[in-house]
Amino acid sequence: MSTSTMKKNHSQWSSRIGFMLAAAGSAVGLGNIWKFPYMAGEMGGSAFVLTYLIFMFVIGLPILVMEWLIGRRGQKNPIHTMEDVAVSEGRSRSWCWVGIIGVLGSFLILSFYSVIGGWATDYIFLAGKGVFLNANGEVTGKIFTDFLGNVNHLLTWHTVFMGATAFIVAMGVGAGLERACKVMMPGLGILLLVLVGYAAYVSGPYFGEAFRFLFTPNWSAINGTAVLAALGHAFFSLSLGMGIMMAYGSYLGKDVNLLSTARTVVILDVLVAMLSGLAIFPLVFANGLQPGSGPGLIFVTLPIAFGNMAGGTILGVLFFIFLTFAALTSSISLLEPTVELLEEKTPMGRKTATIVSSVIIWAIGIACLLAFNEWSDIKLFDKNIFDLLDYLTSKIMLPVTGLGTIIFGGWMMRQTLIRQELNLSKSWFAIWTFLTRFVIPIAVILILIYGFMPE
Ligand code: PHE
User: Fold this and answer.
1) pLDDT over 90 (residue 375)
2) Distance from residue 206's CA to the centre of ligand 1 (Å)
3) Are 284 and 207 a contacting pair, CB within 8 Å?
4) How does residue 174 score in pLDDT terms, banded at 50, 70 and 90?
5) Distance 157 CA to ligand 1 centre (A)
C-alpha cells in the first residue's frame, strides 16, 4: 500500500491529542481490566505486580518510544518501516522480520482477544436483565460456568465482536469512534473509581487485605514464570512488539514530544490496571473466591458488586459497555497491521482484505472458544489452545520482537539521530543510551532464559 493510502486511513489522528488518544485506546483494553487482575491472582499478587510496574517504566516506556521513533522515521507499515530504516542506516533488510513477527503476533492475539471481547459484550445484556441481582460469589460463578459451557452463545458473541471490529476497520477509523472514545474512556475511569470506592466500602478489612496482596513486596513468591509473565504483560498491555505503535508513530508530526507522550500513556495504562485490581480483589477476598481462578475472574467478581449496590444494574450495563469499547479500540488496532499487509502485498482492496483476515482470525478464535468447553482436554505442553496462543504471543513473540526493536534502535541506528529525535540533554541521553544498549536488551534476554528454565 502506498504511504498516501495509509495516511488517509489515519488522517484523523494527526493532532497530538488525537494521537495520544489512539495510542492510549490501543493500550488500555482487556489487558488492563481482564487480564492483569487474573494474572496477578495466579502469580500470587504483589511480586508479579511490582515486577510488572518496574518493567512498564524501565523496559516498556523506552520500547514504546523506540517504536514511535522508528515509525516516525519510516513513515510506512511496520514491515516496510523496519526495512527502509534499516537500509537507510546501512543495515540488512532482514530487520523487516521484526515487523513480520509483530504482524503475526497481532493476528494471533486478536483471535483470542475477540472471544473475550465477546464475553464483555454479552455481559452488557446479562447485567441489563438483572441476572446478578443480590448474587453472591457462588451465583455469579455458576452463571459464568454455564455461560462458558454454551458454545453457541459464545460463538454468537465472538462473531458479533469480530464483526464490529471488522466493520470499523473496513470503514477506516472514523471520527465516530474517536469521539466515542473521548466519552467512553473517561467514563470507564470514573466507573472504575466508583467500583473501587464500593469495594472499599462494603468489604471493610478485605480492602486492606487486597491492598497488601497487590502491593506489599513479597519477593519470595517471585520465580522465572512470574517474571516472564510480568514482562510479557508489560508488552501486551502497552501494545508493544506488534508493530502497532510503530504504525501509529508513522503518522506523527515532528513536533510531538515522544518521551512525554509515552509517559502519559504508560501512566494511564498502569492506573487503569491498578484500579481494576483494587476494584476486584476486595470482592475476591470478601466473598471467599479464589484469586488464582483464571480468565473468568472479573466476570465472577464484578457482577457481585453490581448485583448488590444501589443502581447496580445500570452501572453494570455501563461498565460492560465501556469495557467492550475499550476492547474495541484495542481490537481495531490489532486488525489494522494484517489488513495493511494484505492490502499491500495482494491485489485485494481494503474491504476484501478486512473480510479475509477477519474470517481467518474468527476461525482461529473458534478454536480458542472451544478450549473453554468441548476442547478443554486438547492440550499441548499441558496447555489448552487458549493458553497456548496466549503463551506463544505474550511470552515469546512480543518479548522477542521488543528485543529486536530495542537492539535495532540501540545498536543499529545512528545515535546522533536518536538524540535529535528525542531532544535530550547530554546527560539524559547518556542514561537513555545505557538503558537501550545494555540494560534493556540484557534484561529481556535474561528474563527469557530465566522464564524458560524448568522450575
Ligand atoms: N494493549 C491491549 C490491552 O491491554 C491489547 C493489545 C495488545 C492491543 C496488543 C494491541 C496490541 O488490552
Assistant:
1) no
2) 30
3) no
4) low
5) 19
Average pLDDT over residues 242-263: 87
Ligand 1 center–CA 333 separation, angstroms? 8
Answer whether residue 176 shows pLDDT above 70.
Answer: no
Nearest CA to ligand 1 atom 6: 239
Q: Name the least confident of 4-18, 211-225, 415-429.
A: 4-18
- Three-state DSSP class for 383? strand
Distance 448 CA to ligand 1 centre (A): 21
The three-state secondary structure class of 409 is helix
What phi-psi label fits residue 243: left (phi over 0), alpha (psi between -120 and 50 degrees) or beta?
Answer: left
The number of beta carbons lying within 10 Å of the beta carbon of residue 160 is 16
H-helix segments, 309-439: 312-345, 350-370, 385-390, 398-407, 415-422, 426-434
Q: Taking 50 as the threshold, does the pLDDT of residue 116 lie above it?
A: yes
DSSP states of 31-98 as a string?
Answer: IIIIIHHHHHHHTTSHHHHHHHHHHIIIIIHHHHHHHHHHHHHH-S-HHHHHHHHHHHTT--GGGHHH
- Pocket around ligand 1: residues whose beta carbon is below 6 Å from it? 26-27, 29-32, 106, 109, 236-237, 239, 242, 244, 330, 333-334
pTM of the complete model: 0.90
Question: Residue 448's pLDDT is what?
Answer: 86
- Predicted confidence at residue 76, as pLDDT, reads 81
Q: Nearest C-alpha to atom 9 of ligand 1 is from which residue?
A: 239
Question: 426: how many CB neighbours lie within 10 A of its CB?
Answer: 7
398 Cα–ligand 1 center, Å: 11
What SS3 class is residue 380? strand
By three-state DSSP, how is residue 166 classified? helix
Give the dihedral sign, CA 153/354/328/240. Answer: positive
- Which one-letter DSSP state was computed for residue 396? I
CA 281 to chain centre: 21
Among 36, 113, 328, which residue has the most ligand 1 atoms within 8 Å of its CB, making it the best to mutate?
113
Q: Measure Cα distances from 435 to 147, 194, 416 in Å.
A: 46, 38, 16
Looking at residue 179, what is its pLDDT?
Answer: 66
State the cell numbers at 180.
466515542
